[in-house]
Amino acid sequence: MPQDLEKERQLEGLPQLAKEDQIGANSLSNPSSEDPISRSQLFGHLDNDDFTTEKPGNDMPEQLKELHPYGQILSVNDVESCLKLEESVFPPNQACSREKFLYRLGTCGELALGLFTSSNTTSLPKEAPTASTAHAPDSASPARKGILLAQLVATKTSNTFVRDEDMMLPPPEQSNVVNAAPGSEVAHQGHNEAGRTLAVHSLAVLPAYQRLGLGTTLMKAYVQRMLESDVADRISILTYESLVPFYKKLGFEEIGKSDVTYGGGDWINMVLEFERVRPQSDDE
Asked: Would you say 158 and 195 are in contact if contact means Cβ atoms under 8 Å apart?
């Protein structure tokens, strides 16, 4: 489920993300160098109205100057950090379980993105529960760990909108059904590789790092990555009525009430169709 990101600052630009193996030792030991998402990339797109500036370079929040956030694909190595983040944001009846994180990141981790900081765990400006479960992407700098700040976790489905079965773990008898076709008599549970809809299960930012635009950054970067990879036709998400305006600003369309009962129900279906936001080529 998406957390309440309505109060986050809006970003105009879209920073690039990188896989973990693209994060070199130099960027971890010296974060001011070529980070996958450098602070200039991340904060260079902030609206001018977001911060009062006296001179160039002072328009980023002071508490993030030393974070040097970068993005990378999530894997099963990140499960404990994902769980910590999830539990710090969502109520127990909505938070993803360890078992589901293991399944989703192990089955289709390429559909999940995280926003990390490579800061030393003793120099974080704010509380980060995920610091205790962070690991060092670079063995040459064991003290500098990749600390998870925000996450977006998804699977694929053949449904246009997220349904209860999309959030379930597949039963043992479904283990050989990798590509369930649309229109199948038996509802496919869990990830469906043949699906063309990305079902977002978790969009969350650590409480202490909210209202800094990190969730918006992550979603915009995710949209760009999925557009470029052409793995799906749309993104579908369940949200609350109060968050509909927020997601509309990100390009999502309100579809109406969902019949999903997970987490108590009362969800709104929202969908971002890639066809509506895909850049047109010159010959089209």
From this structure: yes
